[in-house]
What we know:
The chain is an alpha+beta fold. It has three domains: about 5-80 and about 240-370, Aminopeptidase; about 95-230, no CATH class; about 370-440. The chain has 14 helices and seven strands. A seven-stranded mixed sheet has the order 1-2-3-4-5-7-6, sandwiched between helices.
Amino acid sequence: MINVLEVTQDNENQYLDQIAELEKVVLETMEKEGRIGQLFITGKEDISEYIHSKQNTVMVATGENGKVMSASYITQGQQPFTYNDITKYFKYGENYKQYIKAQYKDKKAYREDLEKLYIIKRKAFEFAKKRILSEHPEIKSIHEFLQKELQENGFHEKSELREKLNQYMSENIAKNYDAETQKKYEQFYWFTAQDIMQEYGKVPRKDYSSIQEYEDFMKAQAEYEELLSKGKLTIYEKPTFDSKKYYSANTQNSIELDTYITSPENRNAGTARILVYEGIKKHINEHFKNPNNKEIFLCSTLHRDNLSSKYVSEFFGLTDSLYVNRRQNRDREVHICKIPREKAITYLSSMSDKLAVLYGYNPTGRHISDSTKLKVLQEQLQYEKRELARLKKASSIKQTFSGPNVKFIASKASKTQTLSNEIKTLKQKIKEQEGDKSYGKQ
């Protein structure tokens, strides 16, 4: 019997060290299995930050002895466009630019906003640049910092320069501009001087009081454009879904299924799902207390070969995904789904049903009808069959499909058989009950 609870400042001392140790044990186990690069430890200090943050949630499952068996982190409210902002992947590229342009009925108004927001971004960049250079007196210019990071890490998304630029720029925008401008800052974030050139046939500019001011502005613009060009996203595969439904996602209305780990000694697929569900439920309920919030997005990022994480994400409906270059030599799949306000209660209820039927997790003792049980089992069976077929196909055509992932074929085959047996038994039970009712009426 497991005990599910949230880790707070009140009980942090009891669980923090255990969670940090669990991360190490899980990582070591995965590496022994050949699953290299599929998990990166959050670390005790950052886990503690999650616990102390109002926007993040740390859940654990403990055994009868009080020992932590599993942990999950749900995060929300990251800085826009920083490493943990998964939503940016779905608001990038030519289709997104054309979508923003199409929101304007007046071409003149679009052009004015395009140039105005570029100037605002440039001012925010100047602020961020000065702050970063003041923190690194050993570096004389942003260009020098960029070259250093290109050599060390390829200027990947978690590089210090890239992270701090985005963080300080967004903080500057939030402090100095109204909500409408902040929204447009996100919308026009990826637009460059080249986009303005295509619209106007001229470089973006402002009014200059002197030649020196003009030259300083153009020099800074060159710096900014160099960083934008080096910081472009790489999306390897064209999405097979309509990305438009995710264009309104941002760091405030999105929650990330950040981490979910279970002790190798107590492997139970349901435990991670239970913890994620409790975290999701808390965030969804809190988010929709605000009547102005009309939707929420669930996000996750995972190594393409990490099938365990893939199955957790897809269990909660995160079936739309992009394959992206997230860090140098650390490509990732980013998953997402959208839950409108009017469907939130239904979503949570259906997830609760799945956990009760498939894993026996029903802490409130809620009655679940046989018809609901049958529906859940049949839907899960279809999922397992599709995944089994996909794995078999992958193993036959990919030489790299071996080792740890091969075991999932046997696992899926076993699950399909178990589910089929449960469905058969339940159908027989329903049939007998219907027969009893029919006999009673005679």
